[in-house]
Amino acid sequence: KNQVEQSPQSLIILEGKNCTLQCNYTVSPFSNLRWYKQDTGRGPVSLTIMTFSENTKSNGRYTATLDADTKQSSLHITASQLSDSASYICVVSAAKNNAGNMLTFGGGTRLMVKP
Amino acid sequence: DVKVTQSSRYLVKRTGEKVFLECVQDMDHENMFWYRQDPGLGLRLIYFSYDVKMKEKGDIPEGYSVSREKKERFSLILESASTNQTSMYLCASRRGRGYEQYFGPGTRLTVT
């Protein structure tokens, strides 16, 4: 069964500090992995997408890594800001032959940045 | 900019009522999706449609049906709402297989 596990479930950090969120998956065959940011009461918004051959991808203060051998990904946030307070969701796409790339969603990490 | 809109941000319905949740996208996307999101369970796929008048069951279709008569609109229907359908409902669309999904703002449905 395809699964995506995220850790920690929740995290509180001080403004300006760095943090790293983890994502482990057992999705096969692997197509790509995305990190989404979801503000409270809003829909998720994509931060990064990584395919099998990519190890690192950055989007401003967000840097995602992917280790396809160990099936792990991380999202590193540098110099956190209050606006980074949100849920971060790891989503892994499995390649299929039909029209749908089926997605498996992690449960998310709830990040709170305090002043 | 892709825009996915949902008809209501908040909705309160009574048990047994028929409920319609509407989703519209303005980017001519082929595929559309309905998810529900519950604390501790993440997003779970209810139904998806990869073209007009086409639909496929997701992981948790029981108690729901969908309609896609036009490309830009995907409706989720709760035939007889129950309290266990209280949840956040998210609609998403994408151009096609392998492309990014864009999410709407969500509808928080409460069934009393």
Which range does the strand content of chain A fall in? Answer: over 45%
Q: What class do helices, strands and sheet pairing of chain B give?
A: mainly beta
Percent of sequence in beta strands of chain B: over 45%
Q: How many runs of DSSP E, i.e. beta strands of chain B?
A: 11
Any low-confidence stretches of chain B, pLDDT <50, length ≥5? Answer: none
Order of helices and strands of chain A: EEEEEEEEEEE
Strand segment count of chain A: 11
- Count of DSSP-assigned helices of chain A: 0
What characteristic shape of chain A results from the CA principal axes? globular
Query: Helix count of chain B?
Result: 0
The greatest interface here is:
A-B, 21 and 26 residues
Shape of chain B: globular
What's this entry about, in short?
With 115 residues, chain A is mainly beta. Helices cover 0% and strands 58% of the residues of chain A.
Write the layout of secondary structure elements.
The complex is a heterodimer of chains A (115) and B (112).
Chain A: E1 4-7, E2 10-14, E3 19-25, E4 30-38, E5 45-51, E6 56-59, E7 62-67, E8 72-77, E9 86-94, E10 102-105, E11 109-114
Parallel strand pairs in A: 2-11
Antiparallel strand pairs in A: 1-3, 3-8, 4-5, 4-9, 6-7, 7-8, 9-10, 9-11
Chain B: E1 4-6, E2 10-13, E3 19-25, E4 31-38, E5 42-49, E6 56-57, E7 64-70, E8 73-78, E9 87-94, E10 102-103, E11 107-111
Parallel strand pairs in B: 2-11
Antiparallel strand pairs in B: 1-3, 3-8, 4-5, 4-9, 5-6, 7-8, 9-10, 9-11
What would you note in describing this structure?
The complex is a heterodimer of chains A (115) and B (112). Chain A has strands at 4-7, 10-14, 19-25, 30-38, 45-51, 56-59, 62-67, 72-77, 86-94, 102-105, 109-114. Chain A is mainly beta and 115 residues long. In chain A, strand 6 (56-59) and strand 7 form a beta hairpin. Chain A is globular. The mean pLDDT of chain A is 92. By secondary structure, chain B is mainly beta. Chain B is globular. In chain B, the strands form two sheets. In chain B, strands 2, 4, 5, 6, 9, 10 and 11 form a seven-stranded mixed beta sheet that branches. In chain B, a hairpin with a 7-residue loop joins strand 9 (87-94) and strand 10 (102-103). Chain A binds chain B through residues 31-32, 34, 41-46, 49, 89, 93, 99-103, 105-108, and chain B through 4, 9, 30-31, 40-45, 48, 50-51, 56, 90, 92, 96-98, 100-101, 103-106, 108.
